[in-house]
């Protein structure tokens, strides 16, 4: 696929063009650094937005859910969908209310999701999802049986039509405000960090936490340990 | 407003009923602990999902954006919207791929947003938004002038039609898997923490970071300092 994003009118960023990214790898980096997306679908003429996990394989996004979900059922029936993934990296404290902002990376994907029904492809999609959300778990835990597979919808969505926006750096204040303001201005970074693993109460005492969980890399940009309070 | 959530078919949780919450204060707690929402709207028959900041005043959600945004323009014209707010609290490592999950709190609000045009109400909405995303900044930075107000859309959405879902606790594994599994299972908590404030390069040297920023409380459940790695 072309390395450039935004081939259509709908996925061309109109607002905040200077924040629009055109490199497809910006999209991959964002998707690979987040856990969930927000899936939008039209039901009875009204929008419904639902959070759900995802995984990416090349230019295909896999989304899954229970077969009982009305939104997922609509998406699998060929309805158009919109998927947004957003990572907030910090709060921008400006000298005016108007120029306050967030540093972030966000992507919006448009398209028509297809239901993955071929058993081998469905297993592949679930494996991609699993490796994204819980790396190592596909290999180290019991894989889905036929009943579990039947109870799970897997959708595939092409990443062809996507836009990415990104803001970073200090506030963009008006000159007058920079000259006249007497308080601090800058960025308060926001990081996501893993806590200490909490063992299942049904676990025998002393079972070790495997490195893939105990040493799981942080999501997004890795914070300097000195820089987290 | 009634303290109970879910008065309509659309906002009644069908999937995962045991995760559905019926106390309105669960909705408030979630909204007060997150920064952004995902706003869904229908444009030309297709859904569009966009991330944006919000603020809450009682049972009114305020959302804002640039007057150039097509989605916001559609919402202000009385189109139905869906707003989702999601906080991921941890990853649930189960003994089977199928029972892997996330601990989370999520809300989905349905309704028709109204454009806030009355100048006093618009200022109030922006103040609510500002106090939510950057507490203290309304008082301590320059408030919006007429031009800035005109360049900003403020939408108000009632929280009447809303659903909340929440998952917490250890994995819900099959008995056979609990008996037969030989690896660790449990929850890896995910926390959001503030980094060290980064001063604007245009700031005179030595200007102190005010306590409202330097000591800003963490979002969501406060992690035990001993429990964050």
Structure description:
- Two copies of one chain form a homodimer.
- With 229 residues, the first copy, chain A, is α+β, with helices and mostly antiparallel strands.
- Chain A has a single domain, classed as Roll (Pnp Oxidase, Chain A).
- Chain A contains seven helices and eleven strands.
- The first copy, chain A, has helices spanning 24-33, 70-76, 119-133, 137-140, 146-150, 175-180, 211-214; strands at residues 20-21, 36-43, 46-57, 60-66, 80-93, 101-112, 114-115, 152-158, 162-167, 186-194, 198-199.
- In chain A, strands 1, 2, 3, 4, 5, 6, 7, 8, 9 and 10 form a ten-stranded antiparallel sheet that branches.
- In chain A, strand 5 (80-93) and strand 6 form a beta hairpin.
- The radius of gyration of chain A is 21 Å and the shape is globular.
- The N and C termini of chain A lie far apart (42 Å).
- The mean pLDDT of chain A is 88.
- The interface between A and B is large, with 98 and 98 residues.
């Amino acid at each position: 696929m072309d390395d450039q994003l935004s081939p259509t009118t709908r996925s061309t960023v109109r607002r905040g063009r200077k924040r629009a990214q055109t490199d497809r790898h910006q999209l991959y980096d964002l998707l690979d650094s987040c856990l969930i997306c927000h899936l939008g679908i039209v039901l009875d003429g009204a929008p419904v937005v639902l959070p759900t996990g995802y995984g990416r394989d090349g230019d295909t996004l896999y989304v899954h859910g229970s077969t009982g979900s009305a939104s997922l059922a609509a998406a699998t029936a060929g309805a158009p969908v919109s998927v947004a993934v957003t990572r907030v990296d910090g709060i921008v404290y400006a000298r005016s209310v108007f120029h306050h902002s967030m540093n972030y990376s966000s992507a919006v994907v448009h398209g028509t999701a297809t239901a993955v029904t071929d058993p081998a492809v469905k297993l592949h999609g679930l494996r991609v999802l699993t490796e994204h959300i819980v790396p190592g778990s596909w290999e180290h835990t019991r894989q889905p049986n036929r009943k579990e597979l039947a109870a799970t919808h897997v959708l595939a969505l092409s990443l062809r039509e996507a836009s990415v926006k990104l803001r970073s750096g200090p506030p963009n204040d008006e000159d007058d405000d920079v000259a006249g303001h007497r308080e601090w201005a800058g960025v308060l970074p926001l990081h996501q960090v893993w806590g200490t693993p909490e063992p299942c109460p049904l676990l025998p005492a002393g079972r070790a936490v495997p490195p893939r969980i105990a040493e799981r890399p942080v999501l997004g940009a890795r914070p300097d340990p000195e820089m987290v309070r």
